[in-house]
Structure formats: structure tokens, C-alpha cells
Write a structure and sequence with these properties.
alpha+beta; Spermidine Synthase, Chain: A, domain 2; five-stranded antiparallel sheet; 5 strands
Length: about 100
């Protein structure tokens, strides 16, 4: 069985790779190539146009910083506008 890897080349001397256990879903939308994969080290991950966007293991770090820094900076947050946020992680942190 051949191993599946996702790799991103950032510079000539720097590349990041993730080994994939399984491709859970893959499709080409009108906007991008989308895949949901199960990685060896990072759990389920969203991949758009071949670039890993987020993974189960560490996505909370990103979403907590987006939500909690702003929410804690306001004395009484009642209404919140989330622009983008299609993955729902920021909404999860706010509610």
C-alpha cells in the first residue's frame, strides 16, 4: 500500500509534510479542491487546494485567539458579528 502525504513548500529550503491515514471526502467545488482527511498525528484535517487549513489536534488554538482576545477586550459583549468563520470554530468559542 502506497503512503499518502500532503506537503506544502514554503521556501526552497522549507517544506512541511503530513502523512494521511485515509481520505474521508474529496471533491472539486466551483471555488476550490476540498478534502477532509485523517492524518497520522493531527486527527481529521481540512485541506483546500492542497494546503492544510486546520486539524483537530490544534484548531482550538487559532479559534480561541480569534474569539477570546476580542471578547475579553469588551466590557459587555452582547452582539457579535463573525465575518467568514465557515468552519464554526469561532462561533463555538463565542457561545
Amino acid at each position: 500500500m502506497q503512503e499518502i502525504w500532503i506537503h506544502e513548500t514554503h521556501t526552497d529550503g522549507y517544506q512541511v509534510r503530513w502523512r494521511i491515514n485515509e481520505v474521508l471526502h474529496s471533491e472539486t467545488t466551483p471555488f476550490q479542491k476540498l478534502a477532509v482527511v485523517e492524518t497520522v498525528e493531527w486527527g481529521k484535517a481540512l485541506v483546500l487546494d492542497g494546503n492544510l487549513q486546520m486539524a483537530e489536534r490544534d484548531e482550538f488554538i487559532y479559534h480561541e485567539m480569534i474569539a477570546h482576545v476580542v471578547m475579553n477586550g469588551h466590557p459587555d459583549p452582547q452582539n457579535v458579528l463573525i465575518v467568514g468563520g465557515g468552519d464554526g470554530g469561532t462561533l463555538r468559542e463565542i457561545v
